[in-house]
Amino acid sequence: MPRVGVLALQGDVREHVRVLTDLGADVIAVRRPEELATVDGLVIPGGESSVIDKLARAFGMRHPLREAIADGMPVYGTCAGLILLADRIADGAPGQQTFGGLDVTVRRNAFGSQVDSFEVDLDVPVLGDPPVHAAFIRAPLVEEIGQGVEALATLDDERIVAVRQGALLGTSFHPEVTGDHRFHRLLLDLVDERVRRAGADDTAR
Ligand code: GLN
Question: Where would I find the H helices in 26-181?
Fold first, then answer.
């Protein structure tokens, strides 16, 4: 069975572990490069992106994560995780870096202090019915997407809040908090596909 990790440096790690476990995945918390090397896919949770960035550098995880992403490992980032997957950030903390991989510009804390947090029902055509009940918690927005990036969901005013590029998925919101498992299912499908393809390559060799 393919194994997926949840990056466990900071943030809502437990919620993601629970959703992935409910979906029948073999799940581990990933803090070290040796752990990252054993997984076929990864979730980067919500939390505080500048803290996850700092801890990733302190734990020697930045480079291995960038390599895994470049190598095509499926990764799903929620909220702070989306920020960390973005190639470019607006309103980052001083010196804040991202792992990158998604050809997007993401604005941190885009919804201002008044409406830090809110919930809406979002149409996500790739997931079909019903809409996703999405919780936005000091959420980022995707301000710009490159050519290879697909917008998976937008708010009523067309602002983009979910994207996919190859094996990378990112959402501004937290489906793990509202109990929707379909984005995680999508990640597991990408993981299965990649593991199957790697197996076929080995047989061909
Ligand atoms: N505002 C946080 C950040 O900048 C993200 C919030 C979240 O993940 N819920 O990382």
Answer: 33-36, 49-58, 62-70, 80-85, 175-178
